[in-house]
Design a protein that fits this description.
Blueprint: E1 3-4, E2 11-12, H1 30-50, H2 62-71, H3 76-80, H4 85-88, H5 91-120, H6 122-148, H7 158-166
Antiparallel strand pairs: 1-2
Helix pairs in contact: 2-5, 2-6, 5-6, 5-7
């Protein structure tokens, strides 16, 4: 059903609130309502520019991407994010997915080095092992919380590599 302008009678295309023929607003609440909607849209676009993302090209909104980013540190979702379309094109989620795949690799390497050190010097090696395991555990929790809060927390070297692979600068 076509909607007509209440001022000039022209047909409004796609439910537009502003008539293209006469330029008047047709929304309930008039011009103030349209201006309010435009301000909300502009604020959303500005928020997208601050995070380095494109609001129009980002199918996963800012609010709904935090939980998937946190879940990417559980490894299996991180792999899925490379193949599932709404997540694959989101640079924020790709960053967390890549960092979440690199982080356990580094933790395993550090634990292996601590075990090697433990074979050389029992006391020093076991202290190093305890420190490495505790540090990896605490850092894992920090990464989960930062991802859930919507922050792109970059680990030294790993974060830069993940950002580069995700297409961030």
């Amino acid at each position: 059903m076509a909607v007509n302008c209440m001022h000039c009678g022209a047909v409004l295309s796609g439910g537009m609130a502003i008539c293209q023929a006469c330029g008047r607003t047709n929304a309930p609440g008039g011009r103030a309502q349209v201006v309010k909607r435009l301000r909300v849209m502009a604020a959303g676009m500005a928020a997208g520019m601050k995070t380095g993302g494109s609001v129009m090209a980002d199918p996963v909104s800012t609010g709904s991407r935090n939980l998937p980013a946190m879940c990417s540190y559980l490894v299996l979702p991180a792999v899925a994010y490379f193949f599932v379309e709404p997540y694959r094109s989101n640079r924020f989620l790709r960053f967390h997915a890549i960092q979440s795949l690199l982080f356990p690799v580094v933790c395993v390497l550090l634990v292996s080095l601590a075990l090697l050190l433990a074979s050389l010097s029992a006391l020093l090696g076991w202290l190093a092992l305890i420190l490495v395991v505790d540090a990896c555990g605490v850092l894992f929790v920090v990464l989960l919380l930062k991802a859930y809060r919507g922050e792109a927390f970059r680990l030294p070297w790993l974060g830069d590599l993940a950002a580069q692979q995700a297409g961030w600068k």
